[in-house]
Amino acid sequence: MYDADWGQVLATLTPPDPGTPTVKCRHGWEFQLDDIPYPTIVSEREWVCDKANRVPWSQTISFIGTIVGGMIMGRIADKFGRLPALICANTLGFFGSLGTTFTDGFWDFVICRFLVGMSIDTCFIMLYIIIMEYVGTTHRTWVANLSIAMFFGGGCVLLPFMALWISNWRTLSIVMSIPSLLVLLAPFTIPESTRWYVSRGKVEKAVKMLHRFEKVNKTKIPKDALDEFVTVATAAQESGDSIKILFKIPSLRTMLLLLMSTFMAIAVIFDILIRLSETLGGDFFITFALASATEIPATLVVILLLDRFGRRLLVCSPLVVGAVLSLTAAFVPRGVPSVALAIAARFFNNMAYNVIIQWTPELLPTTVRATGASSVHVSAYFTVMLSPFIVYSVSILVINISKLMCTAVRSTDVYRPLEH
Fold first, then answer.
1. Is 391 in a helix, a strand, or coil?
2. How far is the C-alpha of 191 from the C-alpha of 80, rounded, in Å?
3. DSSP assignment, residue 192?
4. Would the CA dihedral through 96, 101, 103, 107 be positive or negative?
5. In b/e form, how buried is each residue of 311-348, taking b as 16+ CB within 10 angstroms?
């Protein structure tokens, strides 16, 4: 604020001279809760003006947690099993999300969000890998993607209305943390991957798991097929369980680097489109819900087309179309036009996202599948770390334009009629 005599300013309705020194705002803030009609952590802790950078930093530190969690959990999944990694990730997410509600500053908040970040990708990718390793290639596309459409897409659509109904960020954090506890039922309901057992030389446990499926499916595996499975699994165990083998073999190394760079582009667009929901115009909650709802039809299109046209075409084409739509949205008025283009861009970006998360584990050897998939996801979060600052740069741009406009206004006689 200007270090001015504000009594004089109000008495004369003459603004301070542009050369007046500035000081930090002395009297706190009152927030007009329009777009989000309840206090948020930003308004509650006054993370605005000189503290506004705490918002993107808190989000970026959460993404750093995702990178750390992805590297640790991927290694746990390949060495100790998919289920232990899944349980660890969800447990971290529960305590991090619950702990967030008890914070009252910046550093305690970002530590809790770091823990949430450690879980945020692994809790999804581990369950996805288990599905991929059990379902045959003819059914893999619709089984994996239909679950994304129903649960991820449905959850994203419900989230803004749940937030609006609860109207308290602390309560919302508690409510969102509770489902993570369902992971405690995982050892009793979700089977460990048979492919992982075989890759670790645990053929007997793999056979035991197959017998468990016999009971569930009420069918019997032919003895000759089971004997052949044991023979092949024992003789053809993949050697080496280090991520290094992906970089030692030229074809695998090239494939991994291409997957990483592609996923980087998809992930940063995906995250930025979510964060821009509030700045596109229109109702924030409706815009968020409509953009999230595109997950369902996008996934259905993937189910119909993926096995027909292949992975490469359905990653590259939607990614290019989504990028063009995002670029176009920058040059249209805020409101319906920008919202429509952003929603369309999200639709195509969702298609590319769903395809690449299926394509990645399909291309990786079983022994390093979780570590490799986590590495690809982790690489994406290196770029996603920048997305809060990309969105935050919009605010900086608006502030600088406002300053220029104010300077231009002061150079005219526009204030003279106010004096009378």
1. helix
2. 14
3. P
4. positive
5. beebbeebbebbbebbeebeeeeeeeebbbbbbbbbbb
Q: For residue range 280-333, what is the model confidence (pLDDT) as tens digits?
A: 666 788 888 888 888 888 888 988 888 888 888 999 999 999 889 888 888 888
Domains in the chain: ranges and CATH: 31-201+237-410 (1.20.1250.20)
The reported pTM is 0.74
Residue carrying the six token digits 């007046």: 20
Q: Return the closest-CA partner of residue 394 out of 289, 286, 292, 275.
A: 275
Residues 6+ away with beta carbon under 8 Å from 104: none
Answer whether 351's CB lies under 8 Å from 318's CB. yes
Task: From 99, 154, 90, 152, select the one nearest 122 (Cα to Cα).
Answer: 90
How far is it, in rounded angstroms, from Cα 130 to Cα 109?
33
- Measured at the CA of 399, the angle between CA 395 and CA 335, to 5 degrees, comes to 55
Task: Quote the CA–CA distance of 162 and 158 in Å, as a whole number.
Answer: 6
The three-state secondary structure class of 2 is strand
Query: Is residue 63 over pLDDT 90?
Result: no
* pLDDT 10s digits, 355-371: 888 888 888 776 677 77
Map residue 194 onto helix, strand or coil.
Answer: helix
Report the C-alpha gap between 296 and 210 in whole angstroms: 33
Q: How far apart are the first and last CA of the chain?
A: 26
Residues, the chain, total?
A: 420
